[in-house]
Amino acid sequence: MKRSRFLRQGLALTALVSLLSLASCKDQAATPAPGGGDAPAPVAKAPEGGGGGFDAPRKAEGKLSVTLITNNSADFWTAAEKGLEAAKTELTDCDTGRMTPAGSSPTHADQKKTFEDAVAKNPDGIAVTPIDGKEFASVIDDAIAKNIPVICFDSDSETSKRLAYLGTNNYEAGKAAGEAALKLLPNGGKFVAFVGNMSAQNAIDRYKGFQDATKGKIEMLQEPFQDQADPLKAQRNVQDAITKYGDKINGFLGIWAYDGPAILNAVESAKLLGKVKIITFDGAPETLAGLEAKKVDAAVIQKPYEFGRLSAKLLYLINRKGLKAAIDELKPELEKAGMKVDGNKIDTGVTTVTPENVAPFVENMKKLGLKST
């Protein structure tokens, strides 16, 4: 009798588990896809080695729209916008647009709001240069979870699930600036650096590259002055550094695009031209004019035009073919242009411009319709 009772209880338990399993499967099947409709949309899959990835085509046909989100409204981004326009001409079935955080000195919160506004429009891709790469990781991950492809350009968010990084290898760019400084000051010297935010990955990497290239030769008098992307504050910072350190300074390093003009204006006002070296990043119009006039000594110049053009093209191909196939298709074009591809990282490279080679560089810019880069 005992055995018979146990057998009946076991059969009842088995039936109950089966019913629960069927109910669970039914609930999962009824869960709507992120993009709507009956069929489940492709989901982000994290490949080995970290990062998010869309392995299959997300939207093989139909009109696409992609958005580029910058970290501020500096003139530097005009070139990226030109690149976006070029991509729109090349990709006739893809709309492109740029969004910029509100305010003259945007914060992480401002950029997060802009990004979330973009996500609400359900675009087919977003390219972003985060003000704070670590803080922005969860913001990017939320978009990836909603099946929106996100890549980083110019400054990375390595801990996020972003699909790719496209832009300068900022550590190597920092080394290039350091090498330029050593050519100008072979016996070494003392420098002060200026930047918008040291929380940005590009700032961290450039500064580290500069320090490593000049180790034992050039001393940084203090940590970089930060201006929160405010050009007026950037110039005040240079004036403050001159007041604080006086003739101890042998050189100035501008880490973000507008820092070069800020340094030049302050140094000229203090009548220090020719007595100190000015090394900066990017080709703002004032920086290029300073190079032509031999007032700026060197500029490590990136390719923001290509940031815009290639970001749009990569997002387009990710939608049409999947991440790996997209990078494979772009690779011959990238390598022909001297760019380097390492997995899902694309190093667009830099050019060190000096008074000696500035003329042909500016001429090439004009052919692209650019006044700054």
UniProtKB/TrEMBL annotation:
PROSITE patterns listed in its UniProt record: PROKAR_LIPOPROTEIN
InterPro entries found in the cross-reference section: Bact_Solute-Bind_Prot2, Peripla_BP_I, SBP_2_dom
Primary localisation category: other
SUPFAM superfamilies according to UniProt: Periplasmic binding protein-like I
Top-rank lineage group of the source organism: Bacteria
Region (Disordered), start-end ranges: 28-57
Family, per entry: Belongs to the bacterial solute-binding protein 2 family.
Protein name: Ribose transport system substrate-binding protein
Lineage: Bacteria, Bacillati, Armatimonadota, Armatimonadia, Armatimonadales
